[in-house]
Amino acid sequence: MERVYNFSAGPSMLPLPVLEKVAAEMVNYGESGMSVTEMSHRSPDFEPIIAKAEADLRKLMNIPDNYAVLFLQGGASTQFASVPLNLLPEGGKADYIVSGQFSGKAQKEAEKYGDAAIIATSKPDNFVYIPRVERKDLREGTSYLHICFNNTIYGTKYNYIPDTGDTTLVADMSSCILSEPVDVTKFGVIYAGAQKNMAPAGMTLVIVRKDLLGHVRPEAPTMLDWNIMAENGSMYNTPPCFAIYMAGLVYEWLLDMGGLEEMKKLNVKKSKLLYDYLDSQNYFIAPVQKDCRSMMNVTFVTGNADLDKKFAAEATLAGMKNLKGHRSVGGMRASIYNAMTIEGVKKLVEFMEKFAKEN
Ligand SMILES: *Cc1c(COP(=O)(O)O)cnc(C)c1O
C-alpha cells in the first residue's frame, strides 16, 4: 500500500524525510548501539538529543533566554489544570475566551481552582469566528487571559494577539505551533500538544516566561509544577524521550527549509488553494467567518449529512484519509499541517471539483 494523503486533525502527518530518518536510526542510533526507545534519559547518548531539540526550537521560534522550554507528558489537556495551578493564586481571578471546545474545557478545568470567567465567547454563533477582546474587557485584578490560538475543530484562528497590557496572556497553540512565526514575547505561556504539528503523541511543549515560575499552588501535584520541571530540565522524572527525539528531527527539518517564515509561505499557499476554491463555487459551504479562517484546519460542509458521509468515504478510496469533520460538528475538515504537501491539497481540490459535479 502506498502512503496516503492523511488529513487527520491529530495525531497527524509527519514529514516523510523525518519518518525515513527515524526508520534508519530505529534500531541503532548514531554510535550508541541501541535505539532511542531503549536509552536512559540521563545517559550521554540522550542528553545531546534533548539539548539540541531545545536549542533548535529556540532558534526556530526566537525564544528569548527569559523563557523556559519544557518537554512534558500529559497532553495539552493536562495543561488545562497546570495553567490555573501555576498562575491563579487562591482567591484570584482568571479570564477565558471560549472560542471552541478546547478553550471551553480549559475554562471548565480552571473553575475547579477558582474564579475562572468566560469574558467572551462565540458559542452562540457555533464558534464560526474569534471574539475580539481588548485590555478594557479584562476583569479588574485578573491573573491571566487564556486563549486557544487555533481552533482545531471549528477551523478558526486568531488574526490578532489580544493586548492584555501587564496581564499574562496564555495560549493553547496545539494545532498551529510552528506553522508561522509568532512573537513569543507577547505571551506569558504558550503550550501545545505535539501530535498535531510537531511529533508523535506523548509530548507537550510548554514555553513559559521565567518570572511566572515558582508561584504554584501548594496542593498542586509535583508533576504539574512548571518550576520543578524547569529546574530539572524537563527531567524530574522520565520525559517522553522518543517524542522529544522526533520533535527534534522536525525542528531540524524546519530549520533546513529556512525556518518559520518559509513554512508560513507554504502554509499560506496551501490554505489559499482550498479557500479560493471554496469561495469560487456554491456546492460546498465554508462556515467560518473569512477573517478568522485557520491555515491548518479547513472546515466545509455540503449541507447534507449523507453527502458529507459519501464525500469522506469516496475520498478515502481516492487515497485521502481522515476528511470527516469532528464527531461533534460533522461535515468535513481538512487538516493541512506543515507536513501536508501542496500536491496533497491540489489533489483534494480536484477531488472536490469532481465530487461536486457528480453529486
Ligand atoms: C488536540 C487539542 C487539545 C487536546 O490535546 P491533548 O494532547 O489530546 O490533550 C487541546 N487544545 C487544542 C487546540 C487541540 O487541538
Question: Can you characterise this structure?
Answer:
The chain is α/β, with parallel strands linked by helices. The chain has 2 domains: 241 residues, Aspartate Aminotransferase, domain 2, CATH 3.40.640.10; 100 residues, Aspartate Aminotransferase, domain 1, CATH 3.90.1150.10. The strands form 4 sheets. The protein has a 7-stranded mixed β-sheet with strand order 2-10-9-8-5-3-4. It starts with a strand and ends with a helix. 42% of the residues are buried. The mean pLDDT is 97. Pyridoxal-5'-phosphate (PLP) binds next to helix 3.
Chart the SSEs and their pairings.
Layout: E1 5-6, H1 16-25, H2 47-61, E2 67-72, H3 75-87, E3 93-98, H4 101-111, E4 115-121, E5 142-148, E6 150-151, E7 156-157, E8 168-172, E9 189-193, E10 204-209, H5 226-231, H6 241-256, H7 260-279, E11 297-300, H8 305-317, E12 320-321, E13 332-335, H9 342-358
Parallel strand pairs: 1-12, 3-4, 3-5, 5-8, 8-9
Antiparallel strand pairs: 2-10, 6-7, 9-10, 11-13
Helix pairs in contact: 1-6, 2-6, 3-4, 7-9
The structure holds pyridoxal-5'-phosphate.
* Domain unit count: 2
User: How big a fraction of the residues is strand?
Assistant: 15-25%
Tertiary shape:
globular
Low-confidence stretches: none
Which small molecules are bound? pyridoxal-5'-phosphate
- Biggest sheet, in brief? 7 strands, mixed
Number of helical elements: 9
CATH topology of the largest domain: Aspartate Aminotransferase, domain 2
DSSP E strands, number: 13
Radius of gyration: 21 Å
Q: What structural class do you assign from the helix and strand content?
A: alpha/beta
CATH superfamily of the largest domain: Type I PLP-dependent aspartate aminotransferase-like (Major domain)
Q: Give, in order, the helices and strands.
A: EHHEHEHEEEEEEEHHHEHEEH
From the 3D coordinates, which CATH architecture of the largest domain would you assign? Answer: 3-Layer(aba) Sandwich
Helix content: 25-40%
Adjacency order of strands in the biggest sheet: 2-10-9-8-5-3-4
The first-level CATH class of the largest domain is given as Alpha Beta
